[in-house]
Input
Amino acid sequence: MTHHPRSGALRVAYVLTDWLAAAASWSVLFGYRKLWLEPEVIGHAPVEPFGGRYRIGLMLVPLFWLGLHAVLGMYQRPLKRHRILEVGNTLTAAFIGGVVLFFALILDDTIARYQQYYASFAVLVTAQWVFTLVGRMVWTTRTVKRIHRGQWSFPTLVIGGNARAVRMVEEIQQARKNLGYRFVGFLQVNGKDTDLAQIMPRLGTVEILRETVLEHGVEEVIIAIGSGDHEVLERLLNELGGLPVAVRIIPDIYDILSGSVRMSSIYGTPLIEVDRIIMPQWQVVLKRVMDWVVSTVALVLLAPVFLLIALAVRLNSKGPIFYVQERIGLYGKPFQIIKFRTMVQDAERLGPQLSSDEDPRITRVGRFLRKSRLDELPQFFNVLRGDMALVGPRPERAHFIAQIMARAPHYRHLQKVRPGITSWGQVKYGYATNVDEMIQRLRFDLIYIENMSIALDLKILAYTVITVLKGRGK
Output
């Protein structure tokens, strides 16, 4: 999502409050164990109840809670959090973290009665939940009030300017409490939908949608054409697919009756929120951790392989060992991809060209590297830098993306995720030799995005390893 200027400061505030809450709950738990339970076991109060173990826990236990909160997504979209969400999130986190700490720290306690285990667990979970909830309620309530007063808002673009759009905007503007939408203007879908011009600026037509979103720093897009116009709606969603914005659609009566409309505020106008959450936050974090760990281990263990490949590339043909090329990544941002060079130097002096199985530009060593996919190994550096993931749609060059987009506009959805070293489409098709194959591969990449999970990533990685070992790459 687009980063609101206040998101960073509010996220820091949540982190600091959570740290203080975790330190306080650890102090309560430790004091309960040492001053209430331990005297019953040893017959007297401990000489120094808050000694070294307490101080070590005071440093480490809050870090555990902060990590757990991050995995559960409690620092995501801080300006969009609300009080009911905080109650549920903090209770879930307290219970999960309580179970982990119970088995890690409490289970080895010497006790007089087994009921004391239950008491310690209850103290831990209750203290952690109450302290965390109180701290977070302060910031969340403050944020909600500022949004309702109109002090904080989100730049919002309306697509469509018909009478339905006018009614929607008026309903939002006349709401009992401010909903946080700050309308920057609207874009016309056709030449007739100009009714909204009496309320807000007309910024142009949908042909300049991406430029308008980026120019005005838009964070929210409301599509006011109704979900029944499937052809236009598909075109708009394709265009918005690679942009970091929240997308909402004005529903028609069929959408309401079919249960598509979800309300997040009793003061809000009914809108369909297009679900942009591809994976649960804990899987997003785990996927990124897996990327880092696997890439780091691979770069260390495969260092001898890197040296042998580098020597083979250098001896086989003149030119650099590595090949660096601009590709398009997450949200359409360009980055420099790193590969072992598999072609002769200046292979694209006549312009961008795709390779084929019998491409004379591919060197003898390069042909082996492509078959075994070993030319992709340097991309572990791209993963560590955050440009790529282990698994994700293969990144393409802007030159070929333009050709794909002319025939398959839904390619834009691939830019919602980080590109990967390997992908389902790559496993199925290998290197694409023409735009037709790129479009065929696109179908598998879209299915991957809609079904992203850690389990699916592991399957694709396993098939990739098999491809490498058998040298079946294309």
Observations:
- Residues 256-261 have pLDDT under 50 and may be disordered.
- The beta strands are 154-159, 181-188, 202-205, 220-223, 246-249, 272-273, 322-328, 334-340, 389-391, 420-422.
